[in-house]
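User: Hello! I'm new to structural biology and keep hearing that structure can be predicted from sequence alone. Could you demonstrate with Poly A polymerase head domain-containing protein? Please show me the input and the output so I can see what each looks like.

Assistant: Of course. The first part below is the input, the amino acid sequence of Poly A polymerase head domain-containing protein. The second part is the output, the predicted structure written as tokens.
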Amino acid sequence: MSLRLLLPPRGSLRLLSPLHRHQTPRPPPFRTTATGVPQRASSFFSIPIRAFTSISGMAAGTQQQTVEVRESVELTEEEERIFARLLDVVRHFGLGTQLRVAGGWVRDKLLGKGSADIDIALDNMTGQNFCERVNEYSKFMGEEQKGIGVIQCNPDQSKHLETARMLIYGIWIDFVNLRSEKYAENSRIPTVEIGTAKEDALRRDLTINSLFFNINTKSVEDLTGRGLEDLKKGLIDTPLPAKSTFLDDPLRVLRAIRFAARFSFTLAEDLKEAASDEKVKSELGSKISRERIGHEVDLMMSDKHPVNALCHIRDLGLFYVVFAFPEKLEPPALDKHDWLCVSHLEAAWNLAHSIGRSVFSGGSDSKSQVPVVSYIIRYSLKLKASDADTIVNIHVASEKFAELILLLESNENLETVKEKLDDEYLEIPTDLVKRVFAGLILREIKGFWRVALFISTLVYPEVGNASDSLGKQDELDKMKERYISVERSITELDLDGVWKMKPLLDGKAIMGVMQVKSGGPLIGKWQQRLVKWQLAHPQGTMEECMEWMKQSEQQSKRQKIECST
């Protein structure tokens, strides 16, 4: 799981924009808690935001840059071979087809980046017909014919024309004919017709994605007259007027943001104005499915600059459209959730880079209460329910880590923790309290324990030990030091992987030791004690464990008899 799904802001969102309240997907009715850790919701916001606001307004104030753009496309040997074969097909059958590679491949090649995403636009036939000719030519050459995959029209996934796909020299190539699009009012599904290369370029989302590489002439074609210029300027703009472009397909707003963040490009002023338009925002909330919005957010948060992407979403007034909140929230909403979200994301991003390695790899609520983090992921973004559950568990574990960090650093809460672990049958030796307590937390959260530790270090003030006397870099260094120290302590306690530890006795064996004929709560409590005993005695054997259980049971009975007399 990547960083995009694990940061605190997702669990802190509480307010649904009135403009889009009626557009929120309708899950089963429930009350919604404001955080993944409802019993301490207020602590989530007590971390000093002043330390994490260096990017406030960043998206709006980004300066245009000069981007190094190559004069021509340099083909790899693989690409040369593929394109030569396609031209052989055209010549052999006298098709007269102009073959153009479209979109992102051209952009990335001109930026000096590699790309395996080859989409070829055809000017006089369908993709399926051309793929059939490729196979005919292969047969003529005595070569194996390849299967042809046809992706049918699917407007809900922005597939307005049939696309054919086939494997050529080990690379999947998509083929589609050039097209023009006309949108009817109140619909984002266009009427699609076969078009010219210029019409196809003009109907694309962004100028930097409207470039073609003509395979026949081996040249770059900028048919909008602005693609190369905007690429060199590092400018994100639309080939046609931005507002009409966004109203035709409002998802293009999020695509513009995603590419601006990916390349650290500037959003054009007219594009920003159009993206902030109330009608465009309303159309984004009503026309576009939550699945498609969630997919775009997923791509943004998986990319190189997720903080920049959220800055744009916030500054363009799209935050409460993209992250649609539930209607009823407890406790009441706080102001500036969009700013809090970006600030926390930046803090987490900086801390993760400061630590210098990935920590992002792999509850306590009643049935009538669902944390907002779960609501956002399940319903607003339509991502995996299992991801939502994992994130809620991470937030719950992060609070327990706050207590563990204090224990590992200062022993300040040693007696309190020991009291929680001890009962009439089991007393944890003082020098093993840390191992047992940490082990129990790790067994709950398993492979995501570093993420929970990371969030705990970032969020809880008593852990982060933020001070007004510390500058931003000092606070970052302090959090980094704390994270590394606790991670090292857990490793030295030999607890990494402790969730794989198997109990020495199963429920049936425990029933035998206790001399009872049926299970129930009693056996469940002994299973919990058994885990604690094993954590305190990592080298203990099954026989030693059984002997401890018998002695503990006998001692408890004697104490009860003494008390009764």
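User: So the tokens describe the shape?

Assistant: Right, they're a compact way of writing down the 3D structure. Reading them back into a model, for example: Confidence is low (pLDDT under 50) at residues 1-62, 363-368.
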